[in-house]
């Protein structure tokens, strides 16, 4: 660190400070340059969305920062003591399965969303019935679950943005089957990015669709709140309860069982049921685990605060190496992006929009359909901005995403937006021309 540079928590920032470095890569934030003066509160709010701490240049700053050098927090005192062996296993470079495919997008986004919508709704209904049968009769039709996973894989291979969109507008967080479907989608998108074989994608999806069946046998209140160590221990039995059922469906050595047995394990050994560490966790279980964890961050069960996709990605990045291996986190961020398709965002001109396409080579500058203008007026038809082409506002300043928004932060109806975008009188003709 430069002699004039000081590390400062984001909550201690002030206008006039010169930010010379972040605790995350610049390319993962909307800030256009490596170094800038803080000129307004909105910039400090934006920094807090992406960073826990930043590095301030004392020499270049226009304010005295000596009073802000309370650099440490008590959070380190709360960290679990980790022995040398565990730390060594945690620090091992993540082992990946060899890439066997290089998948390319073969279907236009608007076309694939229309095709996937009926399939997504059908799978939602189907999984609801399957979970009901599990609760009432202790029976799961595994052939239907595998077929559902195969259908999702087929869509994700053609264009991963389509099911990502449907996951973001279907954010019911009370139904177990809905969260399972979304977790499966994120995992399949991640596995596609890693170039895994199609049968691996199908098995990961199948495992996560089946993962909550053990929870169906637990008291419902345990899904939403666990106040004691005894309740936590009881909740964690859902893995074994699930495996008891899946061993009836598959042979003991089947890959789905391996995924289900370890997707709740964590890199630092704090997971369950076996407290595996690092590469001792089966690779596909690590893929499934990070996807399921991400889903829980953005769509937690009732009573917990949801993070925006950008906040969830920032959390994963800032805790990399602990719950999940560094390389796994970085690959997941590349696969999902900071602003997944369907994300609600605020632009630098104060307009509100929804991400409608996330090009793989321009994830920080996606296509955004503006739903509300900079005066907070809802538009009859969206103004679509391709941020990769650097459109300017009325003052000639390039428009960028300033922050990711929670779905509850505005009165925008996601289902209505979907109907207007993809209904018979579709607004998305722009995607064919842009």
Structure in a nutshell:
The chain is α+β, with helices and mostly antiparallel strands. It has 16 helices and nine strands. The protein has three domains: 5-67; 109-336, Orthogonal Bundle (Hypothetical protein af1432); 344-433, no CATH class.
Characterization of the model:
By secondary structure, this protein is of the alpha+beta class. The protein has 3 domains: 5-67; 109-336, Hypothetical protein af1432 (Orthogonal Bundle), CATH 1.10.3210.10; 344-433, no CATH class. It has helices at residues 41-50, 84-90, 109-137, 142-158, 160-169, 176-193, 198-210, 221-224, 229-235, 238-249, 255-262, 283-298, 309-318, 326-336, 414-422, 430-433; strands at residues 5-9, 18-22, 36-37, 53-57, 344-347, 352-357, 367-372, 378-386, 401-405. The strands form 2 sheets. A 5-stranded antiparallel beta sheet has the order 8-7-6-5-9. A 4-stranded antiparallel beta sheet has the order 1-4-2-3, with no helix packed on it. The longest helix is centred in the first third of the chain and has 29 residues, at 109-137. It is globular and about 65 Å long.
